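Note to self: the last two entries modelled the partners one at a time, which told us nothing about the interface. This time every component goes in together.
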Amino acid sequence: NAGVMQNPRHLVRRRGQEARLRCSPMKGHSHVYWYRQLPEEGLKFMVYLQKENIIDESGMPKERFSAEFPKEGPSILRIQQVVRGDSAAYFCASSPKETLMNTEAFFGQGTRLTVV
Amino acid sequence: GQNIDQPTEMTATEGAIVQINCTYQTSGFNGLFWYQQHAGEAPTFLSYNVLDGLEEKGRFSSFLSRSKGYSYLLLKELQMKDSASYLCAVRPASTYSGAGSYQLTFGKGTKLSVIP
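The predicted structure of the combined assembly is written out below.
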């Protein structure tokens, strides 16, 4: 059973370009969470999605950032017109539909975005 | 508001015991998690506490006091491979977070260095 798969592992973009980060949850998991980890900072919640639905995007910057989790395929975090401050590690976590209080969350290995 | 505090760095000797403390102030409480994160890798689940007391799991134990907003992670018989960051995370109460969702608030992490 493959874990949470994120790709690419490393992504370099020039300022003003678009970045697309992909996350395939664990098999059987229908809930996806995106987190951002800035250098020397803790993981910050960005968005919580279920298939075809954004449940909570309270942690997403209001502009340039969007996320989706289509019926088929991976979840995508899209950053338009990237700036240097977007350089960070972006982690995806997934959990099953029926999530108990003590259910583990499984994290992917992250995508390290560098904006030059 | 949400605030989670843990020491930035700790150093301990191989074979020894180390205690990593975490204090939190969050809007509601639905459980506290500890994760281990090696540099450049995914956070991996270590423990979960929702009731007061000590949870033991092999060399690792975690303690919670809800009235004090306090937790600690205890690592025994330290090994070199335990050198990593240890992340304290709280699941606060949220309109969107069911009992089992993974919208977690993380501390900045404690970087533990185990020396010979």
